[in-house]
Design brief:
single chain; mainly beta; Beta-galactosidase, Chain A, domain 5; nine-stranded antiparallel sheet; 26 strands; 2% helix
């Protein structure tokens, strides 16, 4: 089922499959990528309980081996939903047979989307309802049409909200963490011009970035700003070696496994270690102009 949030500025549609935003319309303009499978069938998946992938698609915990796919399982799950108003909806996922096969923890995951003027705020709460410490992380993967209206893909850019000197996190050819990094060149300490060949290998992931980034163009008054102070990593991606007319702007709390290492889950880097009865809250926002 698709739920609709609406006010005088935006009409937002969110599916209960994966609690995924599938449409944001302002003044007749669709901002969200519409999942053309020629390029990518996703739109704005949420990433839980991992970001990226495990080496060989598996990890160990408590002496047992578990299999888990890229970006975890939440994006494949049907969430329960409760819409409290025209401007707010909450999606809930708890453990079930499907999740327990991959992840032996009892959890209560809520994702609330709140609309205020031209801003959507996503508030994610991860509650450990089991007895053991629960390793988990979270990320967002929204895709935006480029161009939004005027110009070509190369007429658009990503502009950080503050001057910064990002480090690019060097991934292997198979998208695993190498532990290496290098300075990422940006124009005037803020701007990354978009071009398709940025993604010839795969995604660009950075640390030490500003806490907001805007998709914009000198040829258009339209833009999208992401605010992600709770999330230390930012990725940019579209289908590699293509002319895909979208870009994903991805704030993450965690990273993929190291290349060549099967993780023991409690030792995996960049995970929250949530004690029994405790929770973690992560918030990010998107502003549509």
């Amino acid at each position: 089922m698709v739920y609709t949030l609406k006010n005088n500025d935006l009409t937002v549609k969110i599916s209960d499959k994966g609690a995924e935003i599938v449409s944001v319309v302002k003044d007749g303009c669709e901002y969200i990528w519409q999942a053309d499978p020629i390029y990518w069938a996703g739109q704005a998946p949420i990433l839980f309980p991992i970001c990226g992938r495990f080496f060989q698609g598996k990890y160990t915990h408590g002496g047992k081996e578990y299999q888990m796919g890229t970006h975890g399982f939440a994006r494949h799950c049907d969430f329960a939903a409760k819409q409290s108003s025209d401007e707010s909806v909450t999606f809930v996922l708890t453990q079930n047979d499907f999740t327990l096969e991959q992840y032996p923890f009892d959890f209560y995951l809520t994702i609330t989307y709140t609309l205020s003027d031209n801003k959507i705020t996503s508030t994610t709460n991860i509650l450990n309802i089991g007895k053991d410490i629960m390793p988990a992380t979270f990320g967002a993967h929204p895709a935006f049409n480029v161009p939004l209206d005027s110009g070509s893909f190369e007429d658009w850019c990503i502009e950080f909200g503050d001057d910064c000197t990002p480090d690019e996190l060097i991934f292997s050819d198979t998208c695993f963490n190498t532990g290496k990094k290098r300075a990422y060149p940006i124009e005037g300490s803020r701007i990354i011009p978009l071009r398709h060949n940025l993604f010839n290998v795969d995604a660009i992931f950075m640390s030490r970035v500003a806490s907001s980034a805007t998709l914009k163009s000198k040829l258009s008054s339209r833009s999208v700003t992401l605010e992600y102070e709770d999330m230390p990593y930012l990725g940019l991606w579209h289908k590699p070696q293509s002319d895909a007319p979208y870009v994903c702007i991805e704030p993450w709390c965690g990273l993929p496994s190291f290349d060549g290492e099967v993780d023991e889950l409690t030792k995996k880097c960049d995970m929250f270690h949530i004690e029994s009865g405790k929770d973690v809250t992560i918030e990010y926002s998107m502003i549509f102009n």
